[in-house]
Automatic annotation (TrEMBL):
It is found in: Secreted. One of its GO terms (cellular component) is extracellular region. InterPro entries: Chitinase_II/V-like_cat, Chitinase_insertion_sf, GH, Glyco_hydro18_cat, Glycosyl_Hydrlase_18. Keywords: Disulfide bond, Glycoprotein, Secreted, Signal. Residues 27-440 form the GH18 domain. PROSITE patterns: GH18_2. Its main location: secreted. Pfam families: Glyco_hydro_18. This is Venom protein Ci-48b. One of its GO terms (biological process) is chitin catabolic process.
Amino acid sequence: MKQFIQIIFLGLAIRLGISADQTSNPDKFVCYWNSSSFIRSGPAKVNVMDLKPALSLCTHLIYNSAGINSKNYEVVSLKPKIETDSSRGLYRDIVDLKKCFPTLKIYLGIGGGVDPDSNYEKYLSLVEKSQTRNKFITSVVKFATDFNFDGVDLAWQFPPVESKKSENSLTSSLVNYAKSWIGRGAFKDEKVAEHRKGFSNLVWDLNSLLKQKNKALTLTVLPHVNVTAYYDPEILAQSLDAIHLMAFNKATPDVNPETADYPAPIYGRDNFKTQCIHNDVRYWTNQKTPKEKNVIGIPTHAFTWKLGKSDLRFNSGVPPIAANGPGAEGVVSSIPGFLSYAEVCNRLNDKSSSLIKVDDYLNNKNSYGSYAYRLYNPKTQEDGIWIGYESYISAENKALYAKNNGLGGVAIWDLSNDDVHGTCDGNRFPITSAAKFKLA
């Protein structure tokens, strides 16, 4: 009888186009916190205690982020005035959250795109020699042990990949598409094979020592990194508890100033079939990384583009559309073209903003994302705006994608850009909550 039931189940699985591992629930719900939000002012400030409503949803919290000392290659606090024991003691405060959330695993993030050293040299030179790797490894294990972190997450700041150019069918102009955090890069690494092998050795050796301390090691693949150049997925997977794929920022106003487009689609389209979550996941799984170790990132930030007068005749609001550089900066990050979800939500609820909201996912779960726009007004000469953002609907669908494809879970990047204080509609952490609801 048991065998008969198994056969029936297998038949149904084949009929539905799923595999046995796709029926299990992902067990990882990773949350990042950018500690820079602690030093913001006003509504943008996020204290440790502000995180509590979200932490009941998270299985892991990654404190983003520590950096590397370029002189001795040891891990170092990037904000010693607030993080260390001789100052505000933020490291202790964040780890003490385990008293309220005993099952929560708290990791120290290293790199994360926030280390201000922009030349990438120390991240490359560190992995070249065993002596510098060992210095770093020894300091990391001591750091994690001293502050009682449960593990370490490496978000290695490799040089950005050189931007690709693709033709925009609407404007016939050449625009750059690249895996980029926000900026572009044309760095040519003459020792890329050496750096690839050195990083694999670093991960292997670091994991060996961390495991002796009963601590975990994970990898965060930043959006701008050339994965084929710097990562050996099959080798790395043997030493990692999870691989967090930050498969977003596919289009940004810095890389793509002349064209507004979906920043984080699940699936690609037309000439941009590789600029999507599915392509990144497929690459890592094809390289023999276990599905259950792959975790997909869900962003809580949005990108904005300015729509000018000269673009008006081309624009219907449907991306990709002609644009005129990044939109105005928001109050949270003060970065042109970058908004938190809370800022987007409040603008959408403001009738005077005249924004037209479009949720592609309402009609097609395999669609490309949520966006809002307002075209240039020739009467008032007011610039238009196009906003590509993560809505609760798109977050739900990405969680479902992870679940239906047998992945390890999702990672929220990051809590501080969600609606932390519930300023939009009274709901705190709506993007985080929506993803968790569908993942369960």
